[in-house]
Automatic annotation (TrEMBL):
Pfam family, one: Asp
InterPro entries xref list: Aspartic_peptidase_A1 (IPR001461), Aspartic_peptidase_AS (IPR001969), Pepsin-like_dom (IPR034164), PEPTIDASE_A1 (IPR033121), Peptidase_aspartic_dom_sf (IPR021109)
Keyword Acetylation: no
Species assigned in the record: Umbelopsis vinacea
Similarity section: Belongs to the peptidase A1 family.
Keywords: Aspartyl protease, Disulfide bond, Hydrolase, Protease, Signal, Zymogen
Cystine pairs: C35-C41
Stated name of the protein: Peptidase A1 domain-containing protein
Highest taxon above the source species: Eukaryota
Active site, renumbered: D22, D201
Domain Peptidase A1: 4-313
An annotated GO BP: proteolysis
MF (Gene Ontology): aspartic-type endopeptidase activity
């Protein structure tokens, strides 16, 4: 798992941790001091239960499976501080078992911002805690992302991050993940497909398309090559071309230029670059895309809990 992360603290006195802000899950966990044998526990900050005066153990266990690995441990309640807010008696998990996929990541845990229906613990999520205790001016949060970093705004929209123009909203059609409807997608004004679901997921680094859709898109890009089942490469020389991928949502077209979705070189000669659109059948029953960081670096994204909708606006380019 990759994503944008920031610092929170847990406990009193506070213990700092870097966590990914993940709209694709709903639980909060950090690595615990009991995690000593797992490779993934090394080089990470670990929560020390005995050091917190406010920890209340629940007696319940926790296990969650991500696309990139699994985590397990014990559930407790403690004070969580982030963005100037104190979330008292917040449910969180102290992870004593962590998959090796997390070994080299620069964060110590994950803070889920999805809907409560996908919470593994079944208890109050961090965002529910914020709303229940009137810590937000408005029941929403927003993501601004660049290649260098980003920010998450709780309770307000940062107008300075918008390039101009209106925010386009799309209703959430399935609570759990932040799932919206896409009417059409295409490339260079050629429609490739229509009527797809989109999961808007800050815990995913790329844009993920159903296998057939990813193939159809890359078939229209000269020189694009599939590597394995999920990854595509594109000639780096096309990064300055006028190739453009388009997504139609709520009657509005959102565009990604070649430089937005043709990523880093994968070879020393810098001839082939990674495509920012990968292939995976996320949902076997309904064709579903996942919009990850590649999309957020172009569009400021608003997650409006109160009105159950997602908003997109062209983001101010990173300085």
């Amino acid at each position: 798992m990759k994503g944008y992360y920031g610092e929170i603290t847990i406990g009193e006195p506070p213990q700092p941790f870097n966590v990914v802000f993940d709209t694709g899950s709903s639980d909060l966990w950090v690595i615990a001091e009991e995690c000593i044998t797992e490779t993934a526990c090394h080089n990470h900050r670990r929560y020390i239960a005995s050091s917190s005066e406010t920890l209340v153990p629940s007696g319940n266990s926790f296990q969650i499976q991500y696309g990139s690995g699994a985590v397990a441990g014990d559930i407790g309640y403690d004070t969580v501080t982030l963005s100037g807010m104190q979330l008292r008696n917040q449910t969180f998990a102290m992870a004593s078992t962590v998959s090796e996929q997390f070994a080299l990541v620069p964060f110590d845990g994950i803070l889920g911002l999805g809907f409560s229906s996908i919470s593994t613990s079944g208890e109050q999520t961090p965002i529910q805690n914020m709303i229940a205790n009137n810590l937000l001016d408005e029941p929403l949060f927003a993501i601004y992302a660049t290649e260098q970093g980003g920010e998450i705004d709780f309770g307000a929209i940062d107008q300075s991050r918008l390039q101009g123009g209106e925010v386009v909203y799309s209703p959430v059609i399935e609570k759990g993940y932040w799932t919206i409807e896409m009417e059409q997608f295409g490339i260079n004004n050629v429609a490739v497909g229509d009527s797809r679901r989109v999961v808007v997921d800050t815990g995913t680094s790329l844009i993920v398309a159903p296998v057939a859709d990813a193939e159809a898109i890359h078939d229209l890009i000269p020189g694009a090559v599939a590597i394995g089942d999920s990854t595509y490469t594109i000639p780096c020389s096309l990064k300055t071309s006028d190739i453009e991928v388009q997504f139609t949502i709520s009657g509005n077209t959102f565009k990604l230029k070649a430089s937005d979705f043709i990523l880093r070189p994968i070879d020393t000669k810098k001839e082939m670059c990674q495509s920012g659109i990968s292939a995976l059948d996320f949902n076997q029953n309904v064709p579903t895309w996942v919009f990850g960081d590649v999309f957020f670096r172009k569009y400021y994204t608003i997650f409006d809990i109160g009105r159950s909708r997602v908003g997109f606006a062209l983001g101010e380019p990173g300085k």
